[in-house]
Amino acid sequence: MPRLRRSPQPGTVRVSTLDVQHSYRRSAVVLGPVDVPPVDLLTARFAAMAAAGPEARICLQPSTAATRWRHTPALAGEVFATTTRPPGSDPLALLSALRRRPGDGIRILAGGDYLAIDFSHGLGEVPLLDLLIGVLLGAVDPTDDAVWVPYRHRLSPLVVAGARAIGGRPQRLLPLWRQHRRNSALHDGFVDAGGTDIAPSPATRFARIPADVVTDLRRQRDSALPDVSMFALYTCALHDAFAATGFDVDPTVTLPFDVRRYLPEGRSTLASFSAGLDFRLGRDSGPRGLQSDMAAAAQMARPVANLMAGTAKTRMAMRSRRHPRWLVPSRRRVQLLHSSVGNVPHGPWSFSDPARAGIMVASDPVSPCGVTVTTASVMGSLWLTAEFHDTLFDAEKVGAALDSVPEHAAQLLRQDLR
């Protein structure tokens, strides 16, 4: 999160250590159908958002080595259009066309009535993407100063969240310490092979669960597990689906928690501000046990503590000039990260054809064996996007696992109805 006071280095802005940590990865989104404006209008709106200042984030040039990033609105990114519309507006084809475009800035692709955006994860996450899409589609005016008020602050949002969540409630320290000791053994047994013979190769697969199937699963959930979220149910179903498809799956899953909930009302940040918490899925506890663990984590402010600890660890690595290395574990287990962007659209724009509405959100995995699955609810249906390295995991099997999630969710619910 940038500190918005004047920087002593001309043309630079101080950002958080978390921003640097996320700058090693990129994220992309493909959505449609929407009323996509002409490229020149998209370009003008993008430039207007970049000109709003460091608060807009898109005008910052991410670095993986320093917390001072150049503020260069003129180099924020590029908007372009496909010369031919992919048959059926295939999201994977649009994503491939987007990623073939050279450059490290934000890349925006207009493909018929579909919009695709690729950006450094160090710039931000869902709130930034929501705002950018709103600006591009003409639903948000970036020249309106009121838009940026929640993102202007002198103190770091992490400092504020830590003070409110932990400093003001020191009784949370003991359960946090106990949780830390329990977590210390979650990843035992992994030995790095130390080789680099397998190159990174990001790949994407997606699936859609129709609205009627989602409605039926929700009805069954209301009967069998009324106190369990659909997110917890889908997480367990994803884990079972990958295992049933033949993958060796780590019993520990990572779930991002938005730390903005710990900020005062009216204050927010467009930077990345989510903590990835690890949870071990038990054979007998299932979605009920996972929901209980998630609730306990939120109650003890574990997301804030995790973000603070991760920041300190990354800062130490930066000082020692250690950088992430591509090390493939000797045991290649799927390390599942399940993230949800909730109901789309979040902002004041809409799909031009609700019957065909869809979204694909692809985020680079955090480790060689990582499989990041992002779910999004669109007009009642659920879209699942998996991002992984196909040099390690077979892409067709990953796709098959995603397709089987409804079946495994229903099976979990039947077990609890007995």
Proportion of helical residues: 25-40%
Give average pLDDT, whole number: 86
CATH class of the largest domain: Alpha Beta
CATH topology term of the largest domain = Chloramphenicol Acetyltransferase
Strand share of the residues?
15-25%
Oligomer: single chain
How many strand segments?
14
List keywords for this structure.
22% strand; Chloramphenicol Acetyltransferase; disordered N terminus; 418 residues; 2 domains; 14 strands; 12 helices; single chain; alpha+beta; 34% helix
Description:
With 418 residues, this protein is of the alpha+beta class. The protein has two domains: 12-151, Chloramphenicol acetyltransferase-like domain (Chloramphenicol Acetyltransferase, 2-Layer Sandwich); 159-185 and 199-417, Nonribosomal peptide synthetase, condensation domain (Chloramphenicol Acetyltransferase, 2-Layer Sandwich). The protein has twelve helices and 14 strands. The strands form four sheets. Strands 5-6-7-2-12 form a five-stranded mixed sheet, sandwiched between helices. Helix 3 (91-99) links the parallel strand 5 (77-81) and strand 6. Helix 7 (211-224) packs parallel to helix 12 (405-417), helix 8 packs across helix 9 and helix 8 crosses helix 11 (395-403). The longest helix is centred in the last third of the chain and has 18 residues, at 302-319. It is globular and about 60 Å long. It starts with 11 loop residues before the first strand and ends with a helix.
